[in-house]
What does this fold into?
Amino acid sequence: MGEVILTMKDIDKSFPGVHALDHVDLEVRKGEVLALMGENGAGKSTLMKVLTGIYKKDSGTITYEGKEVEFANTKEAQDAGIVIVHQELNMLGHLTVAQNIFIGREFKKGIRIDDKKMNDEARKLFQRLNIDIDPRETMSRLTVGKQQMCEIAKAISHDAKVIVFDEPSAALTETEIQELFKIIRDLREKNMGIVYISHRMDEIKVITDRVTVMRDGTYVGTLITKDSTKDDIINMMVGRVIYEDPKTQSMVPKDAPVVLKVENLNAGKMVQDVSFELHKGEILGFSGLMGAGRTETARALFGADPIDSGNIYINGSKVTINNPQDAVKNGIGYLSEDRKRYGIVVQKTVAENTTMATLENYMSGIFIDKKKEKEVAEKYVESLATKTPDVDQLVVNLSGGNQQKVVIAKWLTRDCDILIFDEPTRGIDVGAKSEIYKLMNKLAADGKAIIMISSEMTEILRMSDRIVVMCEGRKTGELDISEATQENIMNLATREIE
Amino acid sequence: MANNTTKTAGRNRSVIDRLGGQKFIVLLVVIALFIFFCALSPNFRKYTTFLSILDYSYYITLMAIGVAFPLMTAGVDLSIGTGLICYSLVGGYLITFQGWPTWAGILASIVFGMAIGVLNGCLVALMDLPPFLATLCTCMITRGLGSIIVGRVGISWPAAGTEGGWFRSIFKIQMNGMNIPIGFLWIIIIVIIMTFVLNHTKIGRYTLAIGSNKEATRLSGVNVKFYHIFAYVISGFFAGLAAISYSAIFATVQPGSGAGFELEAIGGAIIGGVSMSGGAGSITGTLAGVFVICLLKTGLPFIGLAANWQQIITGLVLIAAVLVDILKRKKDQA
Amino acid sequence: MEKIKQNPFVKKVGFNRVVLCFVLILLYGFFCAMTQGEFAGISRILSALNYAYFLGFLSLGVTFVIATGGIDFSIGPVMFCCALVSGFSLITYGVPMPLVMVISILVGLCFGIFNGYLVAYWSVPSFITSMASMNIAKGLASVFTKTQSVSWPQSSAEGGWYRYLVKMGDIPIGLFIFLVVAVVCAIILNKTKMGRYILSLGSNKEAVRLSGVNVKKWEMTAYIICGVLVGIGALFYVSAYTTVQPGYGDQYNNEAIAGCVMGGTSMAGGLASISGTVIGVFIIALLQEGILALGFSKDYQLIITGIIVIVAVFSDVVARRRKN
It folds into this structure.
């Protein structure tokens, strides 16, 4: 193992209302792959954003190649040799692969851009990485996996000394991941320092040398990968148990009626032949890796995206869902993973958001009965224990957990029997999480049927009565909670489909 | 192996795509329209008609090439129409009332155009105003300015044959009593130059990159603000050039006119395949698109429709072109 | 400054609107002073009001469209199209006056449906539909009237009673009608389902759609309201000025939008104020009358409104930046 190339010490960063990083340390050495692990929201991405100058740190020091540094932007970090391969791709879809790789530093011949040389250089780069991509191809025509490879090639072409991979494998297929690992090993040989952010335990074991674990914005510790077991790492990640215990058996009575039945649902590439049943009072967990098609299934079911084929039965009778209005009429409510974009109207008040789906119930003649509206909003603020000064508060001023409660209230006023929770606790702090969990359990006990999409294994295991696992747009398995374990879920989620 | 990828990609593309995609279809439309008008009206088949089509095409083409750049950044420039008149008025005023030599007047028009371009660029790129609103304001401002500077009277640039009238022969020369539209030659040259600029220089590359994904371009260390402004400067520069061609073709320039020209130019660019959502487009396509508009404009009176129908039809054609663009994007996403 | 902002009265009315009222009064004082009091006369005020009425209807209409996050700058030419088509049918075909008024409103309605349908159902960018319908309106008016201007009857002539819409003697009836319509608009925007959904979808269309609301319908409604108001505006235009010429009207787009954005309606959608729009329109009308009174041409008005829009929209952009 080589010398230390990068040290981050005592890094502290707060956002309004959130202490995102609480005196975090990190040390990267030459010629090693360091895993950075932690649950969603542990602060990994924030730490990397501080490193590359996207966020400004409140305090702490960054030492790189023996000198203290502070980068003003990603460009400066890049020039110094620190690059990030982002989770979300930063690509220019209309341009070619080579044009993407060399954007901002084109080769020139006089005033002319030397596209030929750029293509040649890109081709050399790909050869070195052993990737099969034509540099002249338009970026948007490539698969997501190939696009990711281009991002990596771009990073390497910067003459990088430290490369950060932010969940690179999320969108890749198994073979592509193997290719990625080959590239990473290769880079390690070349004495680069590599930070590998991932949730996937098996990958960590295979590819990394050391593991640094973060939890709730704090540094927990660092382990040597080959000397530690999966359980060691998990223990550090989870640390304390704050929510209620995992379910060991289904809480749904055996004779509970089927509320929703989906048969051979097809919608685009990401939903292929999906069938499942949902019972009254049940929480049905949807597990799978990112890009498995869970959100797409939910959106198709809710009419947000068009359905290609398939049958949907609600309480035994067949229904047609062409748009969200149809879904709502049939008693389905959808809580999006991206609240800010799809859930709440930020410039409106708590009361106005609460009644968004049921406004016609609060009309007197053609006018909105604001008093009645306020009353019902207040009722739900109370029953969901939403923390807000009053219902006239703009939702934008509420915390993530309380915004989520407003969205839940919106569907409760509608008296929906089927609720789809898509990543219900994403971006919500730990304390508020357990409240949301309690609420979901209460809803189920009251006879609502819930579909819960979650990427957090612990959440799936704690909440679900039954679990549907998806992989690459297909349902790969269904487990009762009594037989579900992290391993067999992960197994189904990564299954190769022929 | 790399070869293999190209082949598959090649196979996925249709015949039309390989011939230049939308450009090719638009060219077919131009030819079809031409044949259509020729077949219906004997008068249309005359050389003078051909000349008047070209006369109209110069300033619209120049504006369209210019406005293609803001469009490709996912913006728009609505100030080019009234701007054209304003620049022409100012140039003509300097020549006829201030005694400036013609070349200086021409230069003044172009510089004024570029100045308004800089203003538009700053409003959009630095101050984050919505492009259509910012340029709608400069549209009004240039209209007012033109009238104020020349005092609400029509301006005539020097006539052909008189002193300083040489510039009119940039676009049309007399030879053996026949008018030769050499302006079209200049248009071809400009199209070639701007195609080069768009496809092989940083200016063009970054214009497309900004339209494709502005944030990603910024994170790649490109001076996004500069190139964003520059797209509007190009638009202003070409509005200036268009002002010269307009002054050369028409006897007088009336203050207060020019509203609506921008629609023809933007329509031409969009018909020619410049995407409203930015990131894609071509200069040759724009040229073909402009000719669809010009043919409709000159051809409709020949088949007995009042000239005003042309305004209505241009509006409808624009909507149709945008709808095609929207449908194409939808297909790409699927 | 902070103290003024915290004042309960100012808070209730809105700081922005209080400032606008001050601007209005200052502007009035300025023009009175510059013209040695000539501006204070009743005729100037009535003339400014004449301008405020039709512009006010355009501005109220476009407020609804901007509230959805869209834009409509076909309103000026469409207003002219309404006035020309209805006026032409009055003069040439002798259509009775009440029916003529209905025609004017119907023409506006049709353009509203056209714009709204393209924007809401076919997702054509609103400024493109505006551009197209601007040209269609101009072309249609020219084709219909054979490029002739149309003169509506004078007050004394038969059917001239329609001019009472703006004033009866020196009584500004138009002011009352305009204010009543403004109040109705404010009620629609703030108290009804329609207004709630228009504002909400302007703020976050996808979230409203996923609440099971028919966003397309409501988005189109905003354009239809705008079209109807433009049709009414056309009647007030001819009541004040009687003569309309085809091919014009685009200068009013900017002035109507200026009145709207000055009044605190956000170009980003979701935030609109009818009372702000009303004050904004009065400022624009006063400005145009004042510029004429000082002996400047209409062209200065174009430039000044252009600058006003830029400043108003920029301050909205800055305010939003600060919030994020």
